[in-house]
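User: structure tokens for this one?
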Amino acid sequence: MNTAGHPEATARRGLELTPFRGLRYDPDRVGSLAAVTSPPYDVVVRPDGLLHLESADPHNIVRLILPQAATPEARNEQAAETLRRWRSEGVLTVDSEPGLYVYEQRGGDGMLQRGIIGALRVSDPSEQVVLPHEDVMPHVVADRAALMRATYANLEPLLLTYRGDGAAAATTTVVERTAERPPLLSTTTEDGYCHRLWSVTDADDVARVRAELARHQALIADGHHRWATYRTLRAEHPSPSPWDHGLVLLVDTARYPLRVRAIHRLLHGFPVRDAVAALDGHFRVRRLDGPLTWAMEELAKAAESGNAFLLAGDGSFRLVDRPDPALLDRTVPAQPPPGMAHPGRHGPARHAPGRHLADPRRLRRPRLLHPRHGGDRGQGRTRRRYGGADAPRARRGRPRAGPTGRHDAPQVDVLRPQTGLGPGAAGAGPVTGERTA
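Assistant:
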């Protein structure tokens, strides 16, 4: 990637978080905050899930992150026009002063997660400040970048994790103290999770958080494509510019560990022989006659050269690798072979094969939109992230046992050589953000 115009300091730099002015929904102008939120853009199932979100409220954020029109150019322009109209109508209002934002997600199952939202300096991989654990698909990055260019907004926050400095850490102190105050917004979405948001505008608190985070690096828990999009857009603009920063949610996993869900997919009621037949001509498939430990070692070796999966379910293992280059070169989201589930990503379950049901475990998170340009045009553009997936996904996790206590139904178990982090990507919510210079 061309990074000309972006000189980096020779000294090691950590996480550099910058305050911004959030652009948030006016509760008096929408039916409910819950009705305008959405899951991540890459989770929304089309068309059923998309139509459900659009009908929930005319101002649902899905109209910005997954606009509908005949061409990509028309979709992006429609999103930009929608954002301009919502701002002019007062549906979205910008906060009066810049700050960082504390976000909380609480579930009825006892889950509690808190983090801090801000505009993070976009760094190069060589700096090892933001660490990925997945590859990206170029056509997805291109799609997200085109949308951001059209809207001049940072529409999708990443979910990043880091390990803080302990219970007495400055950021932890600020987050916990802030969470004792009345929130800027609070809503409970249809999945039963409560979301609350606060702003941190005190100059001393902001300075303490920034100083502490500058000593840390972060792992991308969810948002590899958005991070690649940030880097693409930064490379297109001479620095310094608003494109030097991207919107992120940082969670201290020492304080609030993320839930790790299964990194494999279970295709219920789908015989292994049918799965192998569906892969013919699309991947190389090799039967591995040996124990699971050896099969996993072979999977790890194959993954060093590209996409690789381990197929199980009939007592044996098959290594699936070397995809047809045509699958990777498509300019539209690749569909899986007939009858096969899309390999998907880490995180909570999506949907069973052949179904178009949103999984309630794919949590919605309030989002802050972060405009990319100054002036009237670049003021906080709200972006709520509603995910969109073009193909049915396979359920992840343990199979349901039959009446005998065994897993009687035919099923395929697809394993990937990567770690899965939950509870999922930041969703779209009733907040957006504006960066301050």
